[in-house]
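Tokens as discussed.
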């Protein structure tokens, strides 16, 4: 087999197509690790609604209009109606992804609305959005099947949903929810071709004229010996943050092969946002890469680099809190966590390292915003810090 074919097959095997890759122990992933994830899932579901905020179940995204923060307008669109909201900066958003063979998405196109990967705007009286558990616990088995199918289409022939993950659609949803700024994060999957989202997203932001609101991020992969040079180029072109995805990229964050990337981020003053922790819905073969203990070597070796854990460690949030108490250069992206856990994070790591994130277009922006508003209801200074102040400090915005 020629090298190109071998690289292609290796890339494909490592993508979401490898869903049935199986589990089993590896040198860095034990049976106890797998068990801890199962237990977290059970506990999270059992304890939902029993915390300090009580029952937090809503009928899909539109049901969030039961909260005082949102209303449905005449056209049935959910709108944020908080009058004295500070600026809101979303540290974790994406645009439509098309990889490998999938045709490029027109990121300037306007569609009626963005089709979220967990999509609940259609009349769905069965939809239950519980804000007091990890967000993907709301997926039904059919939601999960659909999401996996979408992930495959994003690699092969293009995804119907991803086509709607455009700049005009994001801006419209930001306006509806009073989100003022979004950091747009590409992901470098380390595929052999069709994998250059950083340039695609950066160009699209420039073409859109929305540079005041959309802040470009960059991504690289450790298999690329040019990664440090690319980061310098991206930083010069305006990138403010670097997204690294250990699960999709199949690398351990504490691997020394990563260190040239962290060194470049240190020199360029770029914070790193990791996909952090096990989400629990990815192929099990990916779980080993995102255990919290596999990040700590990076935090320790590069104390001047500011690291953000996407999803605040996801289902490994307990371990993430322990790490944050040890490493002052570790910040959390609020996305995904339930309200009880978010309140705990505010108390245990303090209000200064928690950042508002949404992981759009997986979910509606309002679902992440609602949680921060609930948790900061009686904490106005913390609300300003989480929604904007901390991110402005991290990104060096004035
Ligand atoms: Zn993400």
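Sequence:
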């Amino acid at each position: 087999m020629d090298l190109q074919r071998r690289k292609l097959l290796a890339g494909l095997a490592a993508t979401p197509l490898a869903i049935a890759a199986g589990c089993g122990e590896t040198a860095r992933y034990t049976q106890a690790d797998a068990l801890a994830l199962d237990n977290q899932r059970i506990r999270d579901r059992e304890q939902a609604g029993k915390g300090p905020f009580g029952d937090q179940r809503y009928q899909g995204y539109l049901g969030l209009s039961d909260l005082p923060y949102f209303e449905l307008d005449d056209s049935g669109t959910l709108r944020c109606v908080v009058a004295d909201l500070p600026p809101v900066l979303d540290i974790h958003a994406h645009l439509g992804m098309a990889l490998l063979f999938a045709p490029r998405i027109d990121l300037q196109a306007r569609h009626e609305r963005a089709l979220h990967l967990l999509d609940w705007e259609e009349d769905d009286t069965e939809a239950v959005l519980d804000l007091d558990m990890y967000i993907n616990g709301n997926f039904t088995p059919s939601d999960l099947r659909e999401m996996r199918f979408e992930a495959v289409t994003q690699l092969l022939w293009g995804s119907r949903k991803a086509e709607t993950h455009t700049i005009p659609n994001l801006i419209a949803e930001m306006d509806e929810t009073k989100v003022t700024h979004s950091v747009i994060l590409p992901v470098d999957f380390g595929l052999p071709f069709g994998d250059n989202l950083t340039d695609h997203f950066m160009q699209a932001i420039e073409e859109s004229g929305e540079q005041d609101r959309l802040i470009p991020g960059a991504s690289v992969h450790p298999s690329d010996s040019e990664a440090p040079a690319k980061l310098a180029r991206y930083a010069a072109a305006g990138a403010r943050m670097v997204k690294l995805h250990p699960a999709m990229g199949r690398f351990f964050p504490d691997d020394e092969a990563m260190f040239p990337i962290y060194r470049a981020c240190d020199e360029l003053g770029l914070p790193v946002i990791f996909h952090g922790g096990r989400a629990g819905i990815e192929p099990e073969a990916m779980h080993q890469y995102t255990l919290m203990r596999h990040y700590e070597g990076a935090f320790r070796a590069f104390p001047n680099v500011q690291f953000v854990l996407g999803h605040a460690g996801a289902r490994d949030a307990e371990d993430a809190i322990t790490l944050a108490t040890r490493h002052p250069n570790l910040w959390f992206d609020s996305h995904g966590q339930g309200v009880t856990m978010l309140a705990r994070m505010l108390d245990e790591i303090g209000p200064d390292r928690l950042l508002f994130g949404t992981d759009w277009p997986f979910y509606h922006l309002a679902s992440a915003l609602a949680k921060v508003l609930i948790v900061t209801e009686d904490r106005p200074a913390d609300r300003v810090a989480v929604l904007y102040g901390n991110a402005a400090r991290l990104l060096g915005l004035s």
